[in-house]
Amino acid sequence: MFDTIVQFCLQNGVYGLVFLAFTEAFVSPILPDVVMLPLCLANPGLAIYYGAVTTAASVAGGLIGYGVGSKLGPICVKRYIPEKHWQRIHNLAEKHGGWTIFWGAIAPIPFKFVSISAGVLRLNFKLFIFISIIGRSKRFLLEAVLLYYLGPSLIEMWERLDEYGLWAAGAAIILALVVMKIRRSSLRDSENPDKCLP
To answer: Which residue in 13, 64, 79, 155 has the fewest CB atoms around it within 10 Å?
Structure first.
């Protein structure tokens, strides 16, 4: 089903991109990147335009999410937002207040959970809009700017890589992630020596 939606959005170009970015901000599980990136790579000269459109549609969809959260309140938390995401957003709200929206907008938390949680927590609405624009711009426009300047060279590099090259690149990324996880685990253990005791 998801593949069908993505294909539909790709076939409809910028209109499909707007639809996906808008709905992802309050209900859809499909990230706009899956449509924005192919469109940017297909036409790098329009990459910044696609990034701006994605940002605007995502912020507009976030307003719907905020409204749903403010109207339904705790019901949304119990029925719609996974516990791990709610706890993370709630902890961010206690530490950063309104800037929770910014961190949530760029973090690997679906933006729909961020926008709905902002409504549940009754964060300042004007601040929500302002920080959503900043966070979503950083999220999508940064990708778009990189693709605008590096798009043609990325395509050329991709075409030059054979199957073995792609496997090697994938293995290198996985290895780097494993090393980072081991280092973080070691740092946590060193900061909490009591956990190492039997």
So the answer is: 79
